[in-house]
Amino acid sequence: MAEAAAPAAPAITGAWTKHVPCRYFMHGLCKEGTNCRYSHGLNTSQPAAVMICKFFQKGNCVFGDRCR
């Protein structure tokens, strides 16, 4: 009795990660080169939402100018 060939597993392309910047590339340390699944472009991702310290906004953050 001949067995049916199992369908090939879909290839993992990492296409969804191409908009995520490669953290290693940003520091000049990515060893994957063109095989890297993350973006090596500097303008390909959308900027992350910036959280501003509510205490800094009010002028009374204990970290002062070092506030993140």
From TrEMBL:
<dbReference type="InterPro" id="IPR041367">
    <property type="entry name" value="Znf-CCCH_4"/>
</dbReference>
<dbReference type="InterPro" id="IPR036855">
    <property type="entry name" value="Znf_CCCH_sf"/>
</dbReference>
<keyword id="KW-0863">Zinc-finger</keyword>
<dbReference type="GO" id="GO:0000209">
    <property type="term" value="P:protein polyubiquitination"/>
</dbReference>
<keyword id="KW-0677">Repeat</keyword>
<feature type="zinc finger region" description="C3H1-type">
    <location>
        <begin position="16"/>
        <end position="43"/>
    </location>
</feature>
<dbReference type="InterPro" id="IPR045072">
    <property type="entry name" value="MKRN-like"/>
</dbReference>
<keyword id="KW-0862">Zinc</keyword>
<feature type="domain" description="C3H1-type">
    <location>
        <begin position="47"/>
        <end position="68"/>
    </location>
</feature>
<dbReference type="Pfam" id="PF18044">
    <property type="entry name" value="zf-CCCH_4"/>
</dbReference>
<dbReference type="GO" id="GO:0008270">
    <property type="term" value="F:zinc ion binding"/>
</dbReference>
<dbReference type="GO" id="GO:0061630">
    <property type="term" value="F:ubiquitin protein ligase activity"/>
</dbReference>
<dbReference type="InterPro" id="IPR000571">
    <property type="entry name" value="Znf_CCCH"/>
</dbReference>
<keyword id="KW-0479">Metal-binding</keyword>
<feature type="zinc finger region" description="C3H1-type">
    <location>
        <begin position="47"/>
        <end position="68"/>
    </location>
</feature>
<protein>
    <recommendedName>
        <fullName>RING-type E3 ubiquitin transferase</fullName>
        <ecNumber>2.3.2.27</ecNumber>
    </recommendedName>
</protein>
<keyword id="KW-0833">Ubl conjugation pathway</keyword>
<comment type="pathway">
    <text>Protein modification; protein ubiquitination.</text>
</comment>
<feature type="domain" description="C3H1-type">
    <location>
        <begin position="16"/>
        <end position="43"/>
    </location>
</feature>
